[in-house]
Specification:
The complex is a heterodimer of chains A (about 200) and B (about 80). Helices cover about 40% and strands about 25% of the residues of chain A. With about 200 residues, chain A is an alpha+beta fold. Chain A has 3 domains: about 5-45, no CATH class; about 50-125, K homology (KH) domain (GMP Synthetase, Chain A, domain 3, 2-Layer Sandwich), CATH 3.30.300; about 130-195, R3H-like domain (Ribosomal Protein S8, Chain: A, domain 1). The relative contact order of chain A is 0.09. By secondary structure, chain B is of the alpha+beta class. Chain B has one domain (about 5-80): GMP Synthetase, Chain A, domain 3, CATH 3.30.300.20. Chain B has helices spanning about 5-15, 45-50, 55-70; strands at about 25, 30-40, 70-79. Chain B has a 3-stranded mixed beta sheet with strand order 1-2-3. In chain B, helix 1 (about 5-15) runs antiparallel to helix 3. The radius of gyration of chain B is 12 Å and the shape is globular. The chains are: A alpha+beta (about 200), B alpha+beta (about 80). The interface between A and B is medium-sized, with 21 and 20 residues.
C-alpha cells in the first residue's frame, strides 16, 4: 500500500501536497487525520480489497446490532489498521482487558486471510482501544526503563500479549542504557528491563 | 430478532470451504439458546481450529454479544 504522511497548516493543504507526491487525483485516494496539532494527514491510494473489507464489516456490525463507523488506513506497507467506532456494544466487544477484542482479531484475521491471502495483515480495533493501550504500555515501559537506569535495578513488566510485546520491544530497543530480556515461555512470558551498568 | 443466528452464519460461512453445506439449527430456551452448527465433514477441522482456537473465538464473541441481549448461548459444532 502506498501512502504518505504530510504536515501542513490545514488538512486540505496536506492532502494537496500528498497528492503531488503520490502522483494521484483526489478520487484515487483516501486520507485520515493522524494528528490535529500540528496537522498530520496520512494519504493512501485506494486498493481493490478496500470495498470488500468495508462491505464485510458493515454487514457484520449490522448483525451485531450496532452501527459501526469504520476507519481504515495503512499502518505500514503491508498492515492495515481498522478501527470501528461504535456505541452500546463497545464494552462488550472489547471485553475484560481486551480479551474479546483479541478473539475478534483472531477471527477476522482468519476470515480476511482466506478472502485476500496472506499478503495483507490486519489490526482490528474498537473505539481506538488498542491504540490507547499501546500508548499507555509504551509510556509505562519507557518510565520503567528510566527508573531502571536511575536505580540500577532490574524491573519486570506486566504480562503482555504477543502484539503488545512486539511494540514495547521495538520502542525500548532504541533506548540507550538498558536492554530487554525475556523470562518464561508462552503466556507466562514477561519482559525484564535490565540496566547496562558496569 | 434473529441476528445472533445470522451473525453466526456469516462467521461460519466465511471460514469454511463449503458454505453451501452449512446448517444452523436454533434451539430456543428460556434463558439459554443452543445453536447447532453443522458443517461439511471436510470443514470440521477449519471450524474447530488448532486446539479448538477458532471454535473458542466464535463462542466468546457470540457469548459476549448475546449476554448483552440478556441471553446465554451455547454453540455446538456437529458433523
Amino acid at each position: 500500500m502506498e501512502f504518505v504522511d504530510e504536515e501542513a497548516t490545514t488538512v486540505e493543504k496536506a492532502v494537496k501536497n500528498a497528492l503531488a507526491k503520490l502522483n494521484a487525483n483526489i478520487g484515487d485516494v483516501r486520507y485520515v487525520v493522524l494528528k490535529r496539532e500540528p496537522i498530520i494527514v496520512r494519504v493512501y491510494k485506494k486498493f481493490k480489497e478496500l470495498e470488500d473489507i468495508e462491505e464485510f464489516l458493515n454487514e457484520f456490525f449490522q448483525k451485531i446490532g450496532t452501527d459501526g463507523k469504520i476507519t481504515i488506513y495503512p499502518e505500514s506497507k503491508s498492515t492495515l489498521y481498522i478501527n470501528i467506532k461504535t456505541k452500546g456494544m463497545d464494552k462488550v466487544l472489547i471485553g475484560k482487558n481486551g480479551k474479546t477484542l483479541e478473539e475478534l482479531n483472531y477471527l477476522l484475521k482468519l476470515i480476511f486471510k482466506r478472502k485476500f491471502g496472506a499478503k495483507l495483515r490486519f489490526i482490528f480495533d474498537i473505539n481506538g482501544y488498542k491504540k490507547k493501550r499501546e500508548e499507555y504500555l509504551v509510556n509505562k515501559a519507557i518510565a520503567t526503563a528510566k527508573l531502571a537506569i536511575e536505580n540500577k535495578l532490574e524491573y519486570t513488566l506486566d504480562p503482555l500479549n504477543n502484539y503488545e510485546r512486539r511494540i514495547v520491544i521495538s520502542k525500548l530497543s532504541k533506548m540507550e542504557g538498558i536492554r530487554i530480556e525475556r523470562v518464561g515461555r508462552g503466556k507466562n512470558m514477561r519482559l525484564v528491563v535490565v540496566p547496562n551498568v558496569k | 430478532m434473529n441476528s445472533t443466528r445470522d451473525l453466526l452464519e456469516q462467521l461460519v460461512k466465511s471460514i469454511v470451504d463449503k458454505p453451501e453445506n452449512v446448517e444452523i439449527k436454533e434451539i430456543p430456551g428460556e434463558k439459554v439458546v443452543i445453536y447447532e452448527v453443522k458443517v461439511d465433514r471436510e470443514d470440521l477441522g477449519k471450524i474447530i481450529g488448532k486446539q479448538g482456537r477458532t471454535a473458542k473465538a466464535i463462542r466468546t464473541i457470540l457469548a459476549a454479544i448475546s449476554l448483552k441481549r440478556g441471553k446465554k448461548v451455547v454453540v455446538e459444532i456437529i458433523e
